[in-house]
Amino acid sequence: MLPKSLAALLLGLSPLALAAAPPAPPEIALRHALTGEAAAALVELVGRFNAESKEGKVLLQHVGMVDDPHQLPHLALLADDEQQKFFGGHPRMLPLYKVMDGAKVKFDAAALFPVLADVVDDNKGRVQALPLALSLPLLYYNKDTFRKARLDPAKPPVTWWEVQTAAGKVFDVDRRCPFTSSNSAWVLMENVATQHGEPVAHGEQGGKAGLALNNLVEVKHVALLSSWHKSFYFRYFGPGREADEKFLSGECSMLTSDSSLYLRLLRRKPFDFGVAALPHYDDVRGAVPGRLLPDGPALWALAGKKKPEYALAAHFIAFLMRPEEQRLWVRSTGFLPMTAAAMDALAAEGAPPELLRKAVERLSDKRFASAARPKAVFGMGRVRAILSEELEAVWANLKPAKEALDTAVRRGNSALQPQPTDGTVSR
């Protein structure tokens, strides 16, 4: 190996200049699983940041293109049930507030909509991750089929009893699939519980966590869905977003799914469709139909990285919080805006539509921060998988609703884990 002084001379540099050369700007990896328009929007978002960044560059990794998932990135746009797929294990995360404090980069956590902050903060109100790609559950319906069934397309079902009536009339004109649901554990279990004042789970910092998804409302709801399944009013296609395509194709007439689907429907316009609030039970005392649990991938920082890399990550987070960047992101993806300033930017150009605008307004109301999902408890992704398995046993007529939910609670309790107290987050 050549001495530094000789190497410098050969390169036309003085040894002093070589010694004073600044270190190369850091690069950090952001791993994600987005597809379609959302993935393209993320590419553009990162491109805009890199074009102006003086701190370094963000490099995108799609989880499907990673050769070794155990080689961990710096950031991950991660849903609760994707850890194993993303990392081949369960690594530790560094809470977002620590990333921002350590880099001394301003982050106004109070600017986040309270309901979204409630999804990603801990039991002390400290933000753990950025709620970048969250959605709310909604009801979508085919207005053309409603007209054939002599249902008023301007009056979608408001309660689950009205869904049953509508499904019966749709069945008379199109027996393929009157009603279906995507992400059924989240939509049909967690959100139905929250709407009717029931907790999803209970747990305390460092204490024992326990599910609460076998209460009267949940048992009643699953029993009703089971009766619909037997009557062919309700069809089940899988625990994820399989049902979305069945609705987009026109096979299914009603669908409960997440709010980001609206943008795909608007762009494809497969038929005349309507959007409505998630139905509720009007015979349950204390029901608050608008109290919902936003869900979706949040942006997490992984623990064990270098200080300059965290500084770059902090500047990227600050970039994502800009109202104009959020406006472009929401317009391209259909995800929920994170702040009131972003919502103002969207409203100035007439977006989003009225129903979603009303839903977003609720995000700023602290009364709708339900706290139904316990703070400092992790493992809900595995719980949803268990719930889906037990629900499938109900649809197959292998178990009654109460037995299936009791079993899901018993199995799911072993999957819930309290948050560690060492400042990192185990997911």
Please tally the β strands and state the result.
15
CATH architecture grouping of the largest domain: 3-Layer(aba) Sandwich
Describe the largest sheet. Answer: 6 strands, mixed
Structural Rg: 24 Å
Quick overview:
The chain is of the alpha/beta class and 427 residues long. The chain has helices at residues 4-10, 15-20, 36-52, 83-87, 96-103, 114-120, 143-148, 160-173, 184-195, 216-230, 242-248, 261-268, 307-320, 323-333, 340-347, 354-363, 380-395, 401-413, and strands spanning 27-32, 57-62, 75-78, 92-94, 137-142, 179-181, 201-202, 210-211, 234-235, 254-258, 273-277, 298-302, 377-378, 417-418, 425-426. The chain has two domains: 27-134 and 295-368, D-Maltodextrin-Binding Protein, domain 2; 137-293 and 389-419, D-Maltodextrin-Binding Protein, domain 2, CATH 3.40.190.10.
Question: Could you explain the architecture of this structure?
Answer:
With 427 residues, the protein is of the alpha/beta class. It has 2 domains: 27-134 and 295-368, Periplasmic binding protein-like II (D-Maltodextrin-Binding Protein, domain 2), CATH 3.40.190; 137-293 and 389-419, Periplasmic binding protein-like II (D-Maltodextrin-Binding Protein, domain 2, 3-Layer(aba) Sandwich), CATH 3.40.190.10. The protein is 43% helix and 13% strand. The protein contains 18 helices and 15 strands. The chain has helices at residues 4-10, 15-20, 36-52, 83-87, 96-103, 114-120, 143-148, 160-173, 184-195, 216-230, 242-248, 261-268, 307-320, 323-333, 340-347, 354-363, 380-395, 401-413; strands at residues 27-32, 57-62, 75-78, 92-94, 137-142, 179-181, 201-202, 210-211, 234-235, 254-258, 273-277, 298-302, 377-378, 417-418, 425-426. The strands form 4 sheets. The chain has a 6-stranded mixed sheet with strand order 2-1-3-12-4-15. Helix 3 runs antiparallel to helix 14. The protein is globular, with a radius of gyration of 24 Å. Mean pLDDT is 89; it is low at 6-11.
